[in-house]
Amino acid sequence: MSDTTRPDTARADLAKQAAAAPSLTARLPGLSALGPLLALILLVALGAYLNENFLSAGNVTNVLARSAFIGMIAVGMTFVITSGGLDLSVGSMAAFIAGVMILAMNALLPTMGVGVPLILAGMAIALGAGLLAGLGNGLLVTKARIEPFIVTLGTMGIFRSLVTWLADGGTISLDFAVRQLYRPVYYSGLFGIAWPIIVFALVAIAGQIAMRHTRFGRYCEAIGSNDKVALYSAVNVERIRLMTYVLLGLLVGLATVMYVPRLGSASGTTGMLWELEAIAAVIIGGTALKGGYGRVWGTVIGVLILSLIDNILILADLVSPYLNGTIQGVIIVLAVVLQRSKSSA
Amino acid sequence: MSAAPERVDAPVLELVDVRKSFGPIEILHGIDFALHAGEVHALIGENGAGKSTIMKILGGFLAPTSGAVRLDGKPAPYASGAQAEAVGVVVIHQEFNLAPDLTVTENIFLGRELGGLFLDHRAMRAGTQALLDELDSPIRPDSRIRDLPVSDRQMVEIAKALARKARVLIMDEPSAVLTHKEVEVLFRQIERLRAQGVALLYTSHRLEEITRLADRVTVLRDGAVVRQAGRGELTEDGMATAMVGRKLEDIYPPKRHHAGAVALEVRGFSVPPLVRDISFTLRRGEVLGISGLVGSGRTELAEGLVGLRAATGEILRHGVPVHVGSVREAAARGMAYLTEDRKEHGLLLDKNLTDNLTLSTLARFGTVFIDSGREEAALTRAIGEFDIRAPRRDMKVGNLSGGNQQKLLLAKTMLGDPEVVIIDEPTRGIDVGTKSQIYAFIDALAAEGRSVIVISSDMPEILGLSDRVLVMRHGRIAGELYGERLTENAVVRLVMGTNEQTSGSAAHV
Ligand SMILES: Nc1ncnc2c1ncn2[C@@H]1O[C@H](COP(=O)(O)OP(=O)(O)OP(=O)(O)O)[C@@H](O)[C@H]1O
Ligand SMILES: [Mg+2]
């Protein structure tokens, strides 16, 4: 029966390290949390060293504004993942919302005319569509009790195919005159700061506060940590879970509101792979993928890291920008490895 | 150097001047300690004294900060629990080390599965069945751990350890969650292993078990050995005094005799599939004990009452029918439940003390934003009131000693200021000193006019605390005892289902 007496030296060393690790990391709790921040600072230094235009106002605005869409979504994703969920549908959802929004605005154009009310109506429709899409995901997860991975894998396909169908395989374009009116929402700003950056900053700050200082954030962490304990502790587990998906849907709607004026169109490839970037940003930022611990400011840093890599590769011309995905992938895996060694301590 | 002078044989496993620190805090201060073949050594001490830490060091799960672990006089050749098992040093943990989604068989053979390329399921299943039969246990080898009650999980843990063919078997409070009958089975196994020359280390907060089993007792206080004694040298009182460092008075508070108005009435209450047609009343200022075997439906009844399980029947508070569909509704009706399963249902082991303490009452700590100052103040109060001993306030609750986790859970439950409190196994894994504190606390709750239901498998506890006892059997109420008729004998008869006539005559035995 006891034929497994094989001393395994590799395992022994690992175990020794694991036994020694806690005292070390217990004394330096800040270090692992600051990892992503250090990585970001390194990237900025690297970028500045490689190209003098890197820190120019134009480039910084460009990087931040592009980060804003994924960023808003990733803040919402942080709550979903923290409470033990996942949403793969956000990229397709953004495309679908963009399509619906543009079609609706074009349809309303004859009655409402080109003007601010039309833009506001379009925004309201986008936010409403986001809310409903998130509600759909959330209800399937909480009421029908289907795994979030499965639910959102399904809705990811559904949204993507719906937008392709709406566009009839091509592109849905916003009426030219409306587009001119709407453009400033992406291209102009306040005190020289572009609107998407401002909105992203507000979302991030509100998200950070909600995670750390409100019941909602605390409950998300509790549910992700052990949903049974949360249930026994009088937490309305289903409603909190539902709320995380609705919040994420709303933020996808908001991101779309900021995104549509950039190109003025939507197609079957809009928002492609956004879900992966958003999830990657959350994980790089130090939120536990299995739930129970969320860090919104980390997510913001994760988003910035991902878009800086992109930007530096294009500016620096060191390696082909086609390798962007490779480098991002390496960083994501590294982030998870760091998390693993942290949690085993 | 040999250990105690009366021993001539060399120790099997030994700690020499072992110190252990977690971060800056030293938990063990120079422990010398030896286990001998064919001997049961008991390690006793208050919650947080360091018993589990010593056992983890012996079993290779923790490395000492300084000092040595010696097996057969040589430095122990292992650096992990798995390696220690391979050389015959096996630990039964206080926290269960079972994979919840695997079956009993899969757990017992985890890491040493039978078969070559393909697993030999039949042989493993048969092996498991044989082990369980040896333990007189009705557990099915194919059950998932997740679906088993805690006592069954403990039996699986024991079966798993027995399957390892240990030279040294280390048991951390194995009896805490077991029923009387299961404890007997465990003791028979321990005696068998002792006769076979296995070195055994045992800990429990039930001192009568120590008296019965131990050939040698080591008393630990605040991480240092304060007393070592051979069989018969220490009385239970002596043990308690050595552990706590002061003399203990009678641990049960005097009985109260002033129940008030009916606070809770339950009529025809059923919690499918097991619990049927339960009716009882509970008065203000009363402690109602619920006794019964594990599996008699006590926890199911309690969970049904607070809306954690679907139930039918009527609940009346102060004579008014109320609907309780969730723990939140129960809380709104002034009812709270303290779970028996603190690790799976009670506490967030990865979170700190504050987050755990306030989780169920968070709405009281600020409207929009959580007022962390008030939370910290609540923790300070709870630490004082419940004597929670935590090396650091911001530590993970999972790193608290078992008894201190229980105290924190009690503090968490009482933070909601409930009028009706159902406490499931209030002192599981709690030392004698703290037990008397908790009993005094329960008594104070009743004295304040609250109503308390105590579910317990500990007979002295049920008898010492309760004004009235309900006994459950197979999901029904087998009887109710109070006043003169409330005796250990009567309760045991009802629990076991011996017929009523004999219980009447046994009342004055
Ligand atoms: N990983 C850890 N980090 C910090 N402190 C720890 C850790 N593990 C244990 N401790 C502390 O060490 C002390 C001893 O704990 P231990 O679990 O050995 O007590 P115990 O005697 O087994 O108590 P109980 O009877 O309650 O089970 C406690 O104060 C506990 O909080
Ligand atoms: Mg212990």
Helical proportion of chain B, percent range: 25-40%
Identify low-pLDDT runs of chain A. Answer: 1-29
Q: How many separate structural domains of chain B?
A: 2
CATH class of the largest domain in chain B: Alpha Beta
Protein name (chain B): Monosaccharide ABC transporter ATP-binding protein (CUT2 family)
GO molecular function (chain B): ATP binding; ATP hydrolysis activity
Subcellular location (chain B): Cell membrane
Domain ABC transporter (chain B): 13-247, 246-499
Task: Provide a short characterization of the protein structure.
The complex is a heterodimer of chains A (345) and B (509). By secondary structure, chain A is mostly helical.
Description:
Chain B: It comes from Ancylobacter aquaticus. Chain B: InterPro entries: AAA+_ATPase, ABC_carbohydrate_import_ATPase, ABC_transporter-like_ATP-bd, ABC_transporter-like_CS, P-loop_NTPase. Chain B: Keywords: ATP-binding, Cell membrane, Membrane, Nucleotide-binding, Repeat, Sugar transport, Translocase, Transport. Chain B: Residues 13-247, 246-499 form the ABC transporter domain. The complex is a heterodimer of chains A (345) and B (509). Chain A is mainly α and 345 residues long. Chain A has helices spanning 9-27, 29-50, 57-82, 90-112, 116-142, 148-166, 176-182, 184-187, 195-213, 215-225, 227-232, 237-263, 274-284, 296-316, 324-343; strands spanning 171-173, 189-190, 193-194, 265-267. In chain A, strand 2 and strand 3 form a beta hairpin. In chain A, helix 3 (57-82) packs antiparallel against helix 12, helix 4 (90-112) packs across helix 12 (237-263) and helix 13 (274-284) packs parallel to helix 15. Mean pLDDT of chain A is 85; it is low at 1-29. In chain B, strand 11 (262-271) and strand 12 (275-283) form a beta hairpin. The longest helix of chain B is centred in the middle third of the chain and has 16 residues, at 180-195. Chain B has helices at residues 51-58, 81-86, 104-108, 121-134, 150-163, 180-195, 207-213, 236-244, 298-305, 327-332, 342-346, 353-358, 372-386, 402-415, 432-447, 459-465, 488-496, 500-506, and strands spanning 13-22, 25-35, 40-45, 66-71, 74-75, 89-92, 168-172, 199-203, 216-221, 224-230, 262-271, 275-283, 287-292, 312-317, 320-322, 335-338, 420-424, 451-455, 468-473, 476-482. In chain B, strands 6-7-8-3-9-10 form a six-stranded mixed β-sheet, with helices on both faces. Chain B is globular. At the A-B interface, helix 1, helix 10 and helix 11 of A face helix 2, helix 10 and helix 11 of B. The structure holds adenosine-5'-triphosphate and magnesium ion. Magnesium ion (MG) binds at residues 51-52, 94, 172, 401-402 of chain B. Magnesium ion (MG) is lined by residues 51-52, 94, 172, 401-402 of chain B.
